[in-house]
Write a structure and sequence with these properties.
The protein is an alpha+beta fold and about 100 residues long. It contains 3 helices and 4 strands, in the order ββαββαα. Strand 1 and strand 2 form a beta hairpin. The N and C termini lie far apart (about 75 Å).
Length: about 100
């Protein structure tokens, strides 16, 4: 069995271009139905406000993840410094540990 269908190239709000069947494109545009991006998230064809909201939500989520990773990195470095461990070579220095304990509690 062979099926032929026309494909329409669409661009998701995340910037990915992909092809969907023409009938789906027409239905999604007319009825505001959900279309799924190859990256897995959904977007609404023809609803630019919702696309903008989804893009902003994704941007916020990405920045929150980056912020959490950076906070974890800073916490690890602070913990090492409190214990007198060099952040670069990972060697322990008793003098640095004593300094941190007495001057930077």
């Amino acid at each position: 069995m062979t099926a032929l269908t026309e494909l329409t190239i669409v661009k998701c709000w995340c910037g990915i271009c992909h092809a969907i069947p023409e009938a789906l494109d027409r239905t999604a545009t007319n009825n505001g139905e959900t279309v799924y991006c190859p990256l897995g998230h959904k977007w609404v064809r023809g609803n630019t406000k919702q696309m903008e909201i989804d893009a902003l939500k994704l941007e916020i989520q990405t920045k929150d993840n980056l912020l959490a990773e950076e906070r974890a990195r800073v916490n690890r470095l602070e913990k090492r410094a409190r214990h007198g461990v060099c952040a670069f070579c990972k060697r322990s220095f008793p003098n640095m540990r004593a300094h941190m304990n007495s001057k930077h509690k």
